[in-house]
Amino acid sequence: MFNTNPFAELSVMIDPTIMETYVVLMALLVAGGTLFDIVHKRSAQYFFNNWQKSKADAKRQVSGSEKVTVAVKTAIDGLTSAELGDCSTRRQLAHILTMYGFIAYTATTAMMVFGYQDAAVPAVVANLWYLGAFMVCLGGYWYWFFIRVDVSAEGHSPFRLIRADLFVVSLTLSTTLALVWAYTQFNSGATALWSVLTLILYIFATTILFGSVPWSKFSHMFFKPAAALEKKMSEASGSRNNLPEPADRTDPAVRDSHSMELLKDAPLSMGLGIKREKPSHY
């Protein structure tokens, strides 16, 4: 099963052109939804204005080599989900599984639909499709049932749905149904009742995933890197988006100016006492 192209087998029931048209339509929905989201929320205007303000408030000129270094570091942080590591290593790992699984899954889907309908699919492509879907499921369900703060810390039911959950729910359901559909089709054929039923559910969940971009967090993956780059550039230039400089407690004058006498001689590293007990259902 893991070496087969489920979309090639589906071509006995659905014309390959229809499948290709559907994939193109989903890509257009993502592009159009992202543009609508940017225009509606004025995200692009906000980031452009903020970038211009940061440049105007810069306290030092950032050299070209520094810009390259900042850009590379921002890219590495994005590729490793480093910003989530400060919150939870588990959340960082779940995000990495979901992110790279989704990339592998969507890339191989396009390859199998457009490139291997009439030819034998390379085993590595089919393997990556199944592996990517499994990774999304692993990361998505791990996050949903064990990491989500309103479940792990606030005690809400894991089955409680709000609008902010639209992206992760539709993504996880889409890949889950993809695997279920591929399994039923491999074992019973493309025209069997269970195969057709799971295919309909798979298409429904996938359409919601790509068609709900303006109302979900899908579009964040496109402009979040730009926001991260702008933030790091503002820190490098000293503008810090008009935020104050962190207090230098190694300076005696700064330590003596503290309003609480108890903290004037406190150690620079206060330890991780706040993390000694994980909040749970408070």
Write the layout of secondary structure elements.
Elements: H1 6-10, H2 16-41, H3 43-56, H4 64-80, H5 82-85, H6 89-115, H7 123-147, H8 149-152, H9 166-188, H10 193-211, H11 220-237, H12 252-256, H13 261-264
Structural class, from helix and strand content? mainly alpha
The ordered H/E elements are: HHHHHHHHHHHHH
Number of helices: 13
Strand content: under 5%
Would you count the extended β strands for me?
A: 0
Question: Termini, distance in Å?
Answer: 46 Å
Q: Return residue spans where pLDDT drops below 50 for at least 5 consecutive residues.
A: none
| Helix amount | 55-70%
Q: Whole-number radius of gyration?
A: 24 Å
* Main β-sheet description: none
Provide the domain count. 1
> Which term fits the overall shape?
elongated
If you average the pLDDT, what whole number results? 80
Description:
This protein has 282 residues and is mainly alpha-helical. It has one domain (6-239). The chain is built from 13 helices and no strands. Helix 3 packs parallel to helix 11 (220-237) and helix 6 packs antiparallel against helix 7 (123-147). The protein starts with 5 loop residues before the first helix and ends in an 18-residue tail after the last helix. The model has no long low-confidence stretch (mean pLDDT 80).
